[in-house]
Each structure stands twice: as C-alpha cells, then as structure tokens.
Amino acid sequence: MATCEVCGNDYGMTFEVHAQGQVHVFDCFSCAIHRMAPICEHCRVQIIGQGVEVEGHWYCGAHCARAEGRTGIVDRV
After folding, report:
1. For position 64, what pLDDT does the model report?
2. Which domain of life is it from (predicted)?
C-alpha cells in the first residue's frame, strides 16, 4: 500500500502521476487536483479543464486572461 501525499490515507489503490520529472502518489482524483491543478491568476479557481496559458501565466479561460490585460486570447468552443 502507498500513502496519498495530500491526505495521508494509506490505501491499496493509490495511483501515481508522473509530471515534470517527479512522481506524485494520490488516493483519489480530488487529492490529485488539489495538489496539481494550476490556479487562475485572475479569479483564483483551480483550473481542471484546458485553461489558457499566456507567457507563463495561467487563467481558467480567455475572459480572465483579458481581465488581466492579455490580448488576442480566444476561447475555443
């Protein structure tokens, strides 16, 4: 068994996420999201979907990017 790095649960069905040269261990998707999802730099929500990255800054969508003064950003629907 392995231990979730967020909640500390010692669980037989943990899973690993390999990202940017590191290995993270979680017991559920909500713990993985809590630890790994970027935060929108405008409205501060965790970005679970695609999000928008502009010059190294993360936003949940084009609206928030534009609110921070970013230009030329369009949501794809």
Report:
1. 95
2. Bacteria
Residue stretches of the chain with pLDDT short of 70: 76-77
**52 near 59, Cβ under 8 Å?**
yes
Pair of tokens at residue 61: 């969508």
What does the radius of gyration of the chain's CA atoms come to, in whole angstroms?
16
Report pTM: 0.76
Q: What is the pLDDT of residue 52?
A: 92
Write down the residue that tokens 């999000």 correspond to.
51
CA distance 2 to 53: 33
Contacts from 21-28 at CB under 8 Å and sequence distance 24+?
28/4
